[in-house]
């Protein structure tokens, strides 16, 4: 599959935008496949004398589109195929697959004819319209759903594991059930966590696995709520994400990731035959908290599905509400995870996907964004002995009110202005033009608009040379 021709050879190609190929072809020659700093793949494209002639233009390896020959031949169609080769790329695939279906917005207008209303020159003015947010389904998707084909498939299967403190598990029941019947319902209080502790009491093999490793060797029966040894298949376990500010619940998750064979909550808190009073103290005894390891794990876990903006907000929350022993070391470890949107904006600004941003500049921008979030929470980087951004960025931070005043969309305001001006009546248009004229001529005029309800008369008064 070849892209093009485009560029100078064919300026009217559909991919051309602003005299450049929007798909960034031709690509660069590469001797081997590499992965750039953003996790995207630069494929191997050898510089060979071979080419494909298309519309009289010679296209070499720089114009090859990633494809799968078997799929192209089987379906007789152009099918782009790329392999997710890094765990960080799962975040981008997850964001794309869960963005929701395509939408279309429709409006229903009911303009009644004059013969019904009995009025002449009737024109309905509907300032508030009823919009309908509809789902848009393409023809091939509609056919796919009519034939009830599989929409998606996940492999391997994932078992969601619940985490809760003692007597704090969620209970599901019908709204028409009585409380006594709910309490007496057998197995109502059983969860994957409580039954993991139960099976550890008599199964020696189960004691060799942590809570998250358990679904690899055991199967959860959701109907009768019990674990049984796995006979076939493969499943991985995933616990729910718990925010670091959740306290004991968060420390419970840390213990479940490291402790094996626990038969009770007390057993989870037991380290070297000592039962600790809280989950946090047990984590300290295991050495999970002395070097900010819990915060490192929290950031690393969130980086697989959170955007850079969300990671910066999480970083600030950890600084504000959690006891970070070494904030500078904590920042140095994770600041690169918070640069995705910054890199994208810079490369879009320069219209160059291969633009290399120096690490010092990226680090400076991350500090700038973190300082803004901290300022909105009545704090600052200096409160945690963290460095401030350098250069013009620190000037923007110092003038907070000016930054907020300049933070607007000019094009959006222009469109809104045109729309509002078109809705003015003749008298309002006259006042509007008078004010604009005074503004352009730099006159210090004071305007009054008085509406007298008793005679429906508008009086316009202008006081010249009045200084504000």
Would you write up a description of this structure?
The protein has 4 domains: 7-93, no CATH class; 157-172 and 187-289, no CATH class; 303-405, no CATH class; 413-463, no CATH class. It is 37% helix and 13% strand. It contains 19 helices and 16 strands. The strands form 8 sheets. A two-stranded antiparallel ribbon has the order 1-2. Strands 3-4 form a two-stranded antiparallel ribbon. Strand 15 (446-452) and strand 16 (457-463) form a beta hairpin. The chain is extended.
Structural class: alpha+beta
- Globally, the shape reads extended
Tell me the strand percentage band: 5-15%
Mean pLDDT figure: 81
Q: Unreliable stretches, pLDDT < 50, 5 or more residues?
A: 451-468
Task: Provide key terms for this protein.
two-stranded antiparallel ribbon, 4 domains, 16 strands, disordered C terminus, alpha+beta, 468 residues
In short:
The protein is an alpha+beta fold. It is built from 19 helices and 16 strands.
Topology, please?
Layout: E1 16-17, E2 20-21, E3 34-35, E4 41-42, E5 52-54, E6 57-59, H1 69-75, H2 89-97, E7 103-107, H3 114-117, E8 131-135, H4 139-146, E9 157-161, H5 179-184, H6 192-200, H7 214-217, E10 218-221, E11 226-229, E12 235-239, H8 248-258, H9 265-268, E13 270-271, E14 274-275, H10 279-285, H11 293-303, H12 308-321, H13 327-334, H14 340-350, H15 359-376, H16 392-398, H17 400-405, H18 410-422, H19 426-440, E15 446-452, E16 457-463
Parallel strand pairs: 9-12
Antiparallel strand pairs: 1-2, 3-4, 5-6, 7-8, 10-11, 13-14, 15-16
Helix pairs in contact: 8-10, 11-12, 12-15
